[in-house]
Amino acid sequence: MQHAGEEIGAGGAANVARNLWAMGAQTMLLGCVGRDANGRELLRLLESNQIEVDAVHTVLGFTTPTKTRILGAEPGRTMHQVLRLDREPENPVPREVREQVAAGVSSLVGRVDAILVSDYGYGLVGPELVEAAHEVRAAGGVVVIDPRKNFDLLRGATALTPNLAELAVATGRRLEEMVDYREVVRAANELADRAEPEWLLVTMGNRGMALFSNDHPEGVTIRAAGSESVIDVSGAGDTAAATFTLALAAGLEGPRAMRLANAAAGVVVMEHGTAVCQLSRLRSELPGAPQPSHSAAVAAG
């Protein structure tokens, strides 16, 4: 197989921030990177998109999470992933950094319309950050949490956006893409009873999305957009969470916000790598999509 080139992109919460920026939101990122080449490159990419990164801490001894994906294809065939190499932090985020990031979130109370907490399991999302996020919520801001674990800390957010695997972890159930939808309903209601979000958006891969609330205990469902022409699902959940958050901040009700999130995710799965959905593209997919004029912060870890 012949080497054809390399491309560097922003993943994780940085991809969430880029999607918010692409939708027209004034965006800042809070979190940390390692004091390494990948961390420096990530900050450069974000700054080139005019995303504020002053609250991203560079931490000695912390490895910037990096996923290297090797793609290949035979002549005339669609490119596909051959191998993925993950470089993960060996140590969790230090306590002092957690406290500094939480203080940064607290400083945003009354200054941002929304905050999206992206939990990737690296140790940043804990009591300090969740408490700070709820200060934003108490001041009238939208707080959306895209969870990985720490579900017992998440009570009272505007919305949670787990995928099926994360919902399974939260409830101890076995949930897969082909599981009976009634099992998804039972698990979603169990998590909703514990965490008490206003909205619980469950992303279900090629089965689409399901949205739960007190008024919709059986869930409002939508088929996956773009499912017939999927090229790469990397980062689709980031796009969905970003779009859903911004739509709620714009005053949309959950079902319409889900419709926008689904359409945006359908756009990015038709591209390689962690792509973003530009507002102009979303408008072409869903005429009447609102023009956001809001500010959003992303806290990651």
Radius of gyration: 18 Å
Tell the overall outline. globular
Provide the structure class.
alpha/beta
Give the oligomeric state of the chains in this entry, treating copies of one chain as homo and distinct chains as hetero. Answer: single chain
Number of strand segments: 11
- Spell out the CATH superfamily of the domain at 95-300: Ribokinase
- CATH domain fold name of the domain at 95-300: UDP-N-acetylmuramoyl-L-alanine:D-glutamate ligase
Helix content: 25-40%
Mean pLDDT: 86
CATH architectural type of the domain at 95-300: 3-Layer(aba) Sandwich
Distance between the ends: 36 Å
Broad CATH class of the domain at 95-300? Alpha Beta
- Strand order, main sheet: write it out: 2-1-11-5-6-7-8-9-10
What is the succession of H and E elements?
HEHEEEHEHEEHHEEEHHHE
User: Can you tell me the residue ranges where pLDDT is under 50 for at least 5 consecutive residues?
Assistant: none
Largest sheet: 9 strands, mixed
Proportion in β-strands: 15-25%
Number of alpha- plus pi-helical segments: 9
Summary keywords:
two-stranded antiparallel ribbon, 35% helix, alpha/beta, UDP-N-acetylmuramoyl-L-alanine:D-glutamate ligase, 9 helices
Summarize the structure.
The chain is α/β, with parallel strands linked by helices. Helix content is 35%, strand content 21%.
Detailed description of the structure:
The protein is α/β, with parallel strands linked by helices and 301 residues long. The chain has a domain at 95-300: UDP-N-acetylmuramoyl-L-alanine:D-glutamate ligase (3-Layer(aba) Sandwich). The protein is built from nine helices and eleven strands. It has helices at residues 12-22, 37-48, 95-106, 127-138, 164-171, 181-195, 236-249, 254-268, 279-285; strands spanning 26-34, 56-59, 66-72, 80-87, 114-118, 142-146, 159-160, 199-203, 209-213, 216-222, 295-300. Helix 1 crosses helix 7 (236-249), helix 3 runs parallel beside helix 4 and helix 7 packs antiparallel against helix 8 (254-268). It is globular, with a radius of gyration of 18 Å. The model has no long low-confidence stretch (mean pLDDT 86).
